[in-house]
Specification:
This protein is of the alpha/beta class. The chain contains 11 helices and 8 strands. The chain starts with 12 loop residues before the first helix and ends with a helix.
Length: 361
């Protein structure tokens, strides 16, 4: 597979040595020299333990994105919201000065047979969705009850709230509709800002270029969103998932969304890449053939996006994903081997590549 990685530099041994020395001297749970940097984020496909969060801390990974399906909080109609699993993650991240970015999505089966159907189709769905967001903001926002209940951990409220995932592709939205998503975003923004005036609303991470027949290209979807009057004021940060076979193509797929925002007088609004990744396999479209090539590809992509950071007004990149999954896991074929660690927790070259940026050695 042709890739831009052929012209990227090989891993510099001194950088690797310094990164390893930094890890050895700080140790799990110790404070890194400058603390985590929220620009560098990640997302996990499986449960993590304290050792994983320790690694994030001394690796200076400053933001952790979590998908929050509605049914994981409210399993039955009329049931109380149960935030136990989110509480546990909040404790682990806050203790390590890591920000949390929740992505709320999915309609429960007691409201719709299709979880991809956005909850705007009747008043019951809308009110249920609003109640979910209010509960989250009142619990984890600026004056959240979670923080008064846990005075032993640092106050690190959720500031950014992402609404839905990949709203422009049928894997996550059915039907794919800019009008439907704009309505969901408006309802969500009004609800969250009422519950916490400090809340900042992030759009769904748009899949940059869906395969033919599966969705709408991200820039065209954004153009359609801007035709709806309420959209402009319904978000603070736009998000994109610029998956591609090469660095050059990934950057190329990001700029059109930025240009659409600029043309609609939203040039000051920021952009986030809430998913980006390549696998270490050789069987899928975004696999680069080996663990070594995956590390080289990560380095190529991060250098390019950091070079374009100011022009894109980029506030963060979330690597997908933290670790590999075991063979046979239920996930997309590409997703199995995108980790910074293998499924047994061993570091892959991509992890050390990322340290090269987070520690700036």
């Amino acid at each position: 597979m042709k890739s831009s990685t052929s012209q990227t530099r090989l891993w510099a041994f001194p950088a690797l040595l310094l990164a390893l020395l930094a890890i050895a001297t700080t140790g799990p749970g110790a404070k890194a020299a400058d603390g985590p940097d929220p620009f560098f984020g990640t997302i996990s496909q499986k449960s993590l333990d304290q050792r994983d969060f320790d690694k994030m801390r001394w690796g200076r990974i400053g933001s952790f994105r979590i998908p929050v399906p509605w049914e994981s909080i409210q399993r039955k109609k009329g049931a109380a919201f149960n935030w136990k699993w989110v509480d546990e993650l909040m404790i682990e991240t806050a203790k390590r000065d890591i920000d949390m970015l929740p992505t709320f999505y999915s309609t429960p089966d007691w409201l719709s047979e299709d979880w991809r159907r956005m909850p705007i189709f009747n008043e019951e769905a809308i009110e249920g969705w609003r109640a979910l967001l209010i509960s989250a903001a009142v619990r984890y926002g600026t004056d959240g009850t979670f923080w008064t209940q846990h005075p032993e951990i640092p106050w690190r409220p959720i500031r950014q709230w992402q609404i839905w995932n990949e709203a422009n592709i049928r894997n996550f939205a059915h039907p794919v509709s800019a009008r439907n998503y704009a309505k969901l975003l408006r309802i969500s923004a009004n609800t969250l800002r009422m519950a916490d005036p400090e809340a900042r609303i992030m759009t769904a991470g748009l899949y940059a270029k869906p395969p033919e027949g599966t969705g709408t290209e991200s820039s065209l979807f954004m153009k359609r969103l801007y035709r709806i009057r309420s959209f402009r004021s319904s978000f603070d940060i736009a998000a994109i998932h610029p998956y591609a076979t090469s660095t050059r193509e990934s950057v190329k797929r990001t700029y059109p969304v930025r240009r659409v925002m600029n043309r609609h007088q939203n040039g000051r609004k920021r952009l986030a890449i809430t998913e980006l990744g390549w696998g270490s396999d050789s069987l899928t479209g975004f696999g680069v053939g080996s663990k070594e090539n995956q590390g080289i590809q990560l380095g190529s992509a991060y250098r390019a996006f950091l070079k374009n950071r100011a022009k894109l007004k980029l506030i963060g990149i979330y690597w997908f994903s933290w670790s590999d999954l075991p063979e046979g896991s239920r996930t997309c074929s590409f997703c199995l081997n995108t980790g910074l660690f293998d499924h047994q927790g061993n570091e892959k070259p991509a992890w050390y590549r990322l340290l090269d940026f987070t520690h700036d050695v």
